[in-house]
Automatic annotation (TrEMBL):
SUPFAM superfamilies reported in the protein's UniProt record: Caspase-like (SSF52129)
Classification via Gene3D superfamilies: 3.40.50.1460
Pfam families: Peptidase_C14
Domain of life: Eukaryota
The UniProt record lists the keyword Nuclease: no
InterPro entries listed in its UniProt record: Caspase-like_dom_sf, Caspase_cys_AS, Caspase_his_AS, Pept_C14, Pept_C14_caspase, Pept_C14_p10, Pept_C14_p20, Pept_C14A
Occurrences of domain Caspase family p10 (ranges): 155-249
Family per similarity comment: Belongs to the peptidase C14A family.
SMART domains xrefs: CASc
Organism name: Porites evermanni
Keywords on record: Apoptosis, Hydrolase, Protease, Thiol protease, Zymogen
Protein name in the entry: Caspase-8
Length: 249
C-alpha cells in the first residue's frame, strides 16, 4: 500500500447491552486501545465507536459506504461484540447478520477493486472446544496457484461485486471466543502482536495464519460440569476471503 492515509479503519466495540442476557464485555477497552494504536501506526485514519444499536450500526456502515474512498488503498472494520452463528449482537440486544455489512460495503463504488478487511471478535455459538491430542505435526505442502492472465481482456473488465473482501473471525462457526478481563480478547491480542512483529515483511494472509496458530496455542480455564473441576478451552480463528491479490500494509 502506498496511499497516506491508507484508508479508514473503523473500530466498533459493543461492550454493554440492554438486558442481563448478555454480559458486559469487560476487558474490551484494552482491545480498542491496542487496535487503535496499531492501525494508526500502519497509516490509517482510525475512528472508534462504542455501544451501537442495530440501526446505528447499519447507519454507520451505510455512511462509510457513501464516503469517497478514491484516494485510499483499502478499508478496515474491526467489530467486537457478543455473537452467534452469522450474526453479532448490538447494544439493544438485536442481532445483525455479518452478511448485511458485506452487502452494504459491496455497493461502495469507490471501494470497488480495493481490499475490504473485516475482523470480527465475537462468539459464533455456545460450543466450547477442548482440543484433540496429537503426537506429531503433519507436513503440508503449500502451492501458490495463480489464474492465468487473459491478455485478450480489456483493462475495463468488470470486477465481481463481492470481490476483494476478507472476513477474519476470532473463532469458527458455532463456537465461543475467549476474552480476559485484564488482557482483552485472545484474538485481538494475538492479531496486534503478530501485525507489529511481521507487518514489515509478510502479506496479510501469512500474518493471519500465524495469528491462527498463536491463538490455538492459548488455553482458557473453564469450569467443568463437575464442581471444583476445570478444563482448558481452545480456540481457532477462521479466515475467508475473495481477495484477488496479496495485501501488504
Amino acid at each position: 500500500m502506498t496511499a497516506l492515509p491508507r484508508g479508514i479503519a473503523l473500530i466498533i466495540n459493543i461492550k454493554s447491552f440492554a438486558s442481563d442476557r448478555w454480559q458486559s464485555r469487560i476487558g474490551s477497552d484494552k482491545d480498542v486501545r491496542d487496535a487503535k494504536q496499531l492501525f494508526t501506526d500502519l497509516g490509517f485514519m482510525v475512528r472508534t465507536l462504542v455501544n451501537l444499536s442495530r440501526i446505528e450500526l447499519l447507519n454507520e456502515v451505510d455512511a462509510i459506504s457513501k464516503e469517497d474512498h478514491h484516494a485510499y488503498n483499502c478499508f478496515v472494520l474491526l467489530l467486537m461484540s457478543h455473537g452467534k452463528s452469522g450474526v453479532v449482537v448490538c447494544s439493544d440486544d438485536q442481532t445483525l447478520p455479518i452478511q448485511s455489512i458485506l452487502d452494504v460495503l459491496a455497493n461502495c463504488h469507490t471501494l470497488w477493486g480495493k481490499p475490504k478487511l473485516l475482523f470480527i471478535q465475537a462468539c459464533r455459538g455456545e460450543l466450547e472446544d477442548v482440543g484433540v491430542p496429537f503426537r506429531s505435526s503433519n507436513l503440508v505442502s503449500q502451492a501458490e496457484v495463480d489464474s492465468p492472465i487473459d491478455k485478450e481482456r480489456q483493462p475495463e473488465t468488470r470486477v465481481p461485486t463481492y470481490a476483494d473482501f476478507l472476513v477474519a473471525s476470532s473463532t469458527v462457526d458455532d463456537y465461543v471466543s475467549y476474552r480476559g478481563d485484564v488482557d482483552g480478547s485472545y484474538y485481538v491480542r494475538c492479531l496486534v502482536e503478530v501485525f507489529r512483529e511481521r507487518v514489515s515483511y509478510l502479506h496479510l494472509n501469512d500474518m493471519l495464519t500465524i495469528v491462527n496458530n498463536r491463538v490455538s496455542n492459548m488455553e482458557a480455564p473453564r469450569q467443568s460440569t463437575n464442581r471444583n473441576e476445570y478444563r482448558l478451552g481452545k480456540q481457532i480463528p477462521e479466515v475467508r476471503h475473495t481477495l484477488r491479490k496479496q495485501v501488504r500494509f
